Amino acid sequence: MRTAVVIGTGLIGTSAALALSARGVAVHLRDADEDAARTAASLGAGTVEPPVTPVDLAIIAVPPALVGRVLAAAQAEGLARHYTDVASVKEGPRQDVVALGCDTVHYIGSHPMAGAERNGPLAARADLFEGRTWVLTPTQDTDTETLNAALELVALCGAVPVVMDAAAHDRAVALVSHTPQVIASLVAARLTDAEESAVRLAGPGIRDTTRIAASDPRMWVDILSANAAVVAGILEELAADLGTAVAGLRELAAADEAKRESGAGVVEDVLRRGNAGRARIPGKHGAPPTRYEVVSVLIGDQPGELARLFADAGRAGINIEDVDIEHSTGQQAGFVRLSVAPRAARSLEDALRANGWSLR
């Protein structure tokens, strides 16, 4: 791949353009918002000058509802030899592409499973897709050269390709991405009118649960509108589960001992089903789920402390699998939770204590 056009210079489009430009691809940028395209160009993502000949690949980075129209216009112009889009849903755009009579031989849908709470070119990063899954959804007649062009795009962006059917993709992302977005927003919304004294007690649990609630609402309306029926179905199932949990909690609060025992069983079942589902999430690098031991270390909030902690762990020969920080309220300190292989936990604890660290 020597040349590409990116149509749509938001977070995903600009990040792809930055990654391609960094690897020597000449990238041309287009956006209905010319200021956004110029901003992306100023970041080194490419040029706003139009290509003089058809490029190798056009990457359409617009909301799902616009993919068909933008693809039709680009193909009518003869903009590229191959085309892909990076919308977060695939079946609706695929239907639009067919209905508009687009050339589906030289088109393939795709979706990089990466993002951020912030949107726009200023949020873009050349390494946004490194190590992330990038789904490819060929049409029935997508040719091999177009598939290879998409695979090269994924490789240049440092991602891992996965080929799926468009409808299967949409069902999957409804479960693992779109529904969690709605749930996170609903939970975070409960904080809006909460007492300040309650909000000040917020810790890692509520922060983790509501992190994605900071996302752009307008962007998510576009995404959800393209997959609304599937998400609604999952939310209906979740509502039924919530009803069961509420009934169990009501029984757990009852004065009657038999009801309390019944409620405890219902609530425990909910929590155990959560354990089982959580255990199915792939582990490191997509490997089977792995159980780690957590070593909690008290750390001061000053420059160099994290580096010193990691250096001490490294000198002990311990590989840190994951890291989480719990900040103390009202104190310049917190706990760093280091996830390590179970066989390494005791060695790490001994090494850190020997270097003066306080463990919880």
From TrEMBL:
Judged by the first EC level, this protein's enzyme class is: oxidoreductase
What region holds the Prephenate/arogenate dehydrogenase domain? Answer: 1-283
Which UniProt keywords are present, listed alphabetically? Amino-acid biosynthesis, Aromatic amino acid biosynthesis, NAD, Oxidoreductase, Tyrosine biosynthesis
**InterPro entries per the UniProt record, alphabetical:** 6-PGluconate_DH-like_C_sf, ACT-like_dom_sf, ACT_dom, NAD(P)-bd_dom_sf, PDH_C, PDH_N, Preph/Arog_dehydrog, Prephen_DH
Residue span(s) of domain ACT: 294-360
The entry lists its GO molecular-function terms as: prephenate dehydrogenase (NAD+) activity
- What reaction gets catalysed by this protein? prephenate + NAD(+) = 3-(4-hydroxyphenyl)pyruvate + CO2 + NADH
Q: In which pathway does it act?
A: Amino-acid biosynthesis; L-tyrosine biosynthesis; (4-hydroxyphenyl)pyruvate from prephenate (NAD(+) route): step 1/1
One Pfam family name from the record? PDH_C
Write the Enzyme Commission number(s) for this entry: 1.3.1.12
Top-level taxon in the UniProt lineage: Bacteria
Q: Which family does it belong to?
A: Belongs to the prephenate/arogenate dehydrogenase family.
Q: Supply the name of the protein.
A: Prephenate dehydrogenase
Organism encoding this protein: Streptacidiphilus monticola
